[in-house]
Design brief:
Number of domains: 1
CATH class: Mainly Beta
CATH topology: PH-domain like
Structural class: alpha+beta
Strand order of the largest sheet: 1-2-3
CATH architecture: Roll
Radius of gyration: 14 Å
Oligomer: single chain
């Protein structure tokens, strides 16, 4: 399914990774990660790791193979492959920081 989505994204010329003040949308894996649920974002080489406060809700949305991988390795972090993202790691991390700060400001304004 991942390869199909990657080809579909390439043919339709959509962004592989979309980030805004509400979520990070990984089009290749068809997953949205809301900023409210993200505990920490780290980038290691060409992998973006998202540590979630409650990963169970996201695990329920993924396929059985992905659930097995997550639970068998006992990881709480979701991985996003950055091979197809046209950005340097520094630019990406700065952008993620900006949006995460904006998400916090929006959340605090609601209180």
């Amino acid at each position: 399914m991942r390869n199909y989505n990657l080809i579909k994204v390439a043919l339709t010329k959509q962004a592989v990774l979309e980030v805004d003040e509400t979520c990070i949308y990984d089009r290749v894996n068809n997953m949205k990660y809301c900023w409210d649920d993200i505990e920490e974002v780290t980038a290691i080489d060409d992998i973006l790791l998202l540590s979630m406060y409650q990963p169970q809700g996201y695990v329920a949305k993924t396929s059985a193979i992905k659930r097995f991988r997550i639970y068998s390795k006992k990881k709480k972090a979701f991985r996003i492959d950055l091979d197809c993202v046209k950005s340097t790691r520094k630019e990406l991390v700065n952008t993620l920081d900006d949006f995460s700060i904006r998400a916090i400001e929006i959340q605090q304004a609601k209180i």
